């Protein structure tokens, strides 16, 4: 039975791979007609290494002015007086009580009808 399984697996593998290869796009071979054989020669030559000359820049000295010390001629700002804020209390007024309405006895309502 093992031989039968190997034969089926092998044929399935060949079928699968042949389908993959047939699905790939064809590569076109480009042929270039050569009328005369051309010879190519290449000469490799190393260039001499030239050392760059150092560029000397002249040093220009600028005259330095001495720093003058700052005199303490600044006048201090005039001091302002601090005023204390005092909140004045408003007189408390009691709300006036509204006069109460006199209750009318229930008996009087009935008597009027």
How does this model look, in words?
- There is one protein chain.
- The protein has 113 residues and is an all-alpha fold.
- It is 26% helix and 0% strand.
- The chain has two helices and no strands.
- It starts with a helix and ends with a helix.
Label this structure with key terms.
flat, 113 residues, 2 helices, mainly alpha
The major pleated sheet works out as: none
Spans with pLDDT under 50 lasting ≥5 residues?
Answer: none
Mean model confidence by pLDDT? 76
DSSP strand tally: 0
Kindly estimate the percentage of residues that lie in beta strands according to DSSP.
Answer: under 5%
Provide a short characterization of the protein structure:
By secondary structure, the protein is mainly alpha-helical.
Compile the SSE list and pairings.
Blueprint: H1 2-23, H2 106-112
């Amino acid at each position: 039975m093992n031989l039968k399984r190997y034969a089926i697996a092998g044929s399935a593998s060949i079928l699968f791979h042949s389908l993959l290869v047939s699905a790939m796009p064809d590569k076109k071979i480009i042929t270039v007609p050569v009328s005369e054989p051309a010879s190519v020669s290449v000469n490799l030559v190393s260039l001499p290494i030239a050392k760059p000359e150092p560029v000397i820049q002249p040093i220009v000295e600028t005259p330095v002015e001495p720093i003058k010390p700052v005199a303490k001629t600044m006048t201090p700002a005039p001091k302002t007086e601090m005023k204390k804020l005092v909140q004045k209390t408003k007189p408390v007024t009691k709300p006036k009580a509204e006069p109460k309405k006199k209750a009318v006895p229930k008996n009087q309502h009935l008597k009027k009808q």
